Amino acid sequence: MHVPDGFIDAPVSVATGVVAAGAVAVSLRGARRELDERTAPLAGLVAAFIFAVQMLNFPVAAGTSGHLLGGALAAILVGPYTGVLCVSVVLLMQGVLFADGGLTALGVNITDMALVTTVVAYAIFRTIVKLAPHRRRTVTVASFVAALVSVPAAAVAFTAIYALGGTADVAIGKVFAAMVGVHVLIGIGEAAITALTVGAVVAVRPDLVYGARGVTGRPLEIRSSPLAPAAPGQVARADGPVADAARAPEPDDARAPEPDGAAVPAAAPKRSARRVWWAGLAAALLCAGVVSFYASASPDGLEKVAHDKGIDKKAEDHAAKDSPLADYGVKDISDARLSGGLAGVIGVGATLAVGSGVFIVVRRRRAAAESERG
Fold first, then answer.
1. Residue 26's CB: how many other CB atoms inside 10 A?
2. Which has the closest alpha carbon to 71: 129, 147, 3, 143?
3. How far, in Å, CA of 37 to CA of 316, rounded?
4. Each residue's pLDDT tens digit, 280-302
């Protein structure tokens, strides 16, 4: 859904640029409350992972493909404010390095793909987890529904922006129907990717999932014989299993009620997120460097609708069209597989570096502010 230059006129592009700048400024401030010493590096990884998975276009209808937008995934994993920043970093890197999404349309893309998807998805996610039973399965189901709705919501937002500043004379009703129709299908793919990713992380490290805080209930348990003595740092339960106190419990005021006979684990030091970080990086590199070669070559939802409805009549060449990485390939490398894979790896590395840098700085500013108050 990357909007290219020329689709939206200058006044509306400027207005959405102001909205995007404001959203980023507010998110930088809000992210200070969401990030800590472990999650700041993970937030950079989330941005890199979204970049990688966005390269994996999947077919959704005849001649049309879709790809992850990532707002729901980022918001649930690292928080809504940090999520807006994650997707914004991805869009910036795509526009500057890969000529994907117009530079004059960057404000449109951040407003639509970062702000709208994140806000809508996280609002739906929090509503579901508040109303549903506090279980890990609830987090996965809520992730699926939130991601599913966020994609057509972005399509509606684009249609509204186009109604205000579209450069081609096109019937808005037809644009709305086409955009929402195809993006409902794309939303199913988005929902599946989001739910699988969130579910995988929740299964092994629920403490690292921002949206799971206060929802997943008891920490993970290590089953052992009822006759085995509890090891140091562990609390024996009345029914036999031993709860591993090395996994940090959720705050007492946010935890779901413990089952009868279960002891509440004692507080314990925070666990390192290093293994999760390396696993996530490996997955991102695999997606961008290898799996992306097998992605669908069909135009994505917006490209298809723009071509069919005449929205692209006044599309302009990208300012970075001569970038050595334009169109996700490395210039002067003739082998398509090698060129695309190398471009993907470079993109993951660049997004990881920029994203991690931003989030580490935000975290340090929070730490400095806390030190001054203390």
1. 13
2. 147
3. 43
4. 999 999 999 999 999 999 999 99
Opening angle at CA 287, ends 300 and 335, nearest 5? 80
Residue 66 has phi, psi (to 5 degrees) of: -140, 165
Residue of 82, 122, 33, 93 whose CA lies nearest to 359 = 82
Query: Each residue of 303-325: b (16+ CB within 10 Å) or e?
Result: bbbbebbebbeebeebebeebeb
Residue 223 near residue 241, CB atoms below 8 Å: yes
Residue 275 has pLDDT above 70, yes or no: yes
pLDDT at 36: 85
Alpha carbon distance, N-terminus to C-terminus of the chain: 46
Phi, psi of 244 (to 5 degrees): -80, 110
- pLDDT of res. 374: 64
**Alpha-carbon span 127 to 100, nearest angstrom:** 34
For helices 80-98 and 71-78, give the axis angle rounded to 10 degrees.
130
Query: What does pTM read for this prediction?
Result: 0.85
Check if the beta carbon of residue 300 is closer than 8 Å to that of residue 86.
Answer: no
Helices 172-204 & 71-78, crossing angle to 10 degrees?
A: 30
Buried-exposed string 211-236: b where 16+ CB fall within 10 A, e elsewhere: bbeebbbbbbeeebeeeeeeeeebeb
**HEC string for 314-353:** HCCCCCCCCCCCHHHCCCCCCCHHHHHHHHHHHHHHHHHH
Residue that the structure tokens 């609390």 belong to: 235
Q: What pLDDT does residue 265 have?
A: 42
CA distances from 168 to 9, 100, 113, 321 (A): 10, 21, 22, 23
- Closest Cα partner for 12 from 184, 207, 189, 157? 157
Q: What SS3 class is residue 66? A: strand
Surface-to-core class of residue 246, CB atoms within 10 Å of its CB (0-12 exposed, 13-18 middle, 19+ buried) = middle
Q: pLDDT per residue over 108-134, tens digit each?
A: 999 999 999 999 999 999 999 999 988
Count the neighbouring beta carbons within 10 Å of the beta carbon of residue 331: 12
In 48-116 the beta strands, taken as DSSP E runs, fall at 58-61, 64-66
- Identify whether the C-beta of residue 114 lies closer than 8 Å to the C-beta of residue 70: no
Q: Which residues contact 344 (CB under 8 A, 6 or more apart)?
A: 52, 55, 287, 288, 289, 292, 328
